[in-house]
Design a protein that fits this description.
The protein is mainly alpha-helical. It has helices spanning 3-17, 21-39, 49-72, 76-90, 99-113, 121-132, 138-149. The radius of gyration is 18 Å and the shape is globular.
Length: 150
C-alpha cells in the first residue's frame, strides 16, 4: 500500500477517535476517490504515491472550485465547509510554488524549447507541467506561460 494512503487511513482513525467531523468526512471522501481510481479501468490495481497525490490534488481543486461557486451563489456556510475540507487536504499535498519559483521554471522551459510566441504555449506547457506537478495549479501555470509568450 502506498505510504500516503496508509497515512490517510491512520489519520482517519485518529480523526474518528477525536470526533473531528470535518477531517473524518474529508478523509473518507479522499479515500473513496482513491479506491474509485484503483478499481477504474480494465483491472484493479494499487496506486503509487504519485498517483494518490494526483487524486488528492484533484480533490483539493474540486473543493476550491466548489467554495468559489458557493460564494458566488451567496451560500457562505457551504463555502466555508468546502474551504475547511480543502485545508484538510492541503496537509497531504506538497507546498505550492511561489511566484518567483514558478517564474524560474517557466523561464527555463522557454529557453529549453526556444519558444518565442503564443503558438509555442503547448511546447512550454509540456516541459513545465511535469516539473511542477502537484506544486502549482495548471491554470496558474498556463496563465503565466501565456502572459510571458504574448
Amino acid at each position: 500500500m502506498a505510504r500516503l494512503k496508509t497515512r490517510l487511513h491512520e489519520d482517519l482513525n485518529t480523526a474518528m477517535k477525536a470526533r473531528d467531523a470535518v477531517t473524518t468526512a474529508t478523509l473518507r471522501m479522499a479515500l473513496t476517490s482513491i479506491t474509485n481510481e484503483e478499481v477504474s479501468g480494465k483491472s484493479a490495481r494499487e496506486l503509487t504515491d504519485d498517483e494518490v497525490l494526483r487524486v488528492m490534488t484533484r480533490e483539493g481543486k474540486k473543493r476550491r472550485e466548489a467554495a468559489e461557486a458557493f460564494d458566488a451563489a451567496g451560500r457562505a456556510e457551504l463555502a466555508e465547509r468546502e474551504r475547511a475540507e480543502g485545508q484538510v487536504l492541503e496537509r497531504y499535498l506538497p507546498a505550492q510554488l511561489g511566484d518567483e519559483e514558478l517564474a524560474e521554471f517557466i523561464t527555463a522551459a522557454i529557453a529549453e524549447t526556444g519558444a518565442s510566441g503564443a503558438r509555442d504555449v503547448g511546447a512550454v506547457m509540456k516541459v513545465v507541467v511535469p516539473r511542477v506537478a502537484g506544486r502549482a495549479d495548471g491554470r496558474r501555470v498556463s496563465d503565466e506561460v501565456r502572459r510571458r509568450l504574448a
